[in-house]
Amino acid sequence: MKVSQSLSRQVVGVCLFAVLSSLSAAAQATPRIAQPVEGERLITLRGHTHPLARPEYDHGAAPESLPMQGMLLVLKRAPEQEAALQKLMDDQQDKSSPNYRELSVRLR
Hints:
Layout: H1 5-28, H2 79-91
């Protein structure tokens, strides 16, 4: 089955709209980093380290040529950012909203 080129463009348009809307909301949010980061003022967050990351397994610094197999970075939106995103997603499902986008799927 092939999806029509028109549908593909509509999907890309909706995705682009969602990304731009969330970027716009993020630009209006209050910065969450309120002061410069100082290396001398670091704290350890308990419970955020993998259980196998212990001193007895430390082999020292890895060579710079060692490829990184993967990394997981988890970020949390500010409450006002989360609320704005949730409202946008709800509006996109509400036919009376100007943010509503209807996609007609035509399969061959």
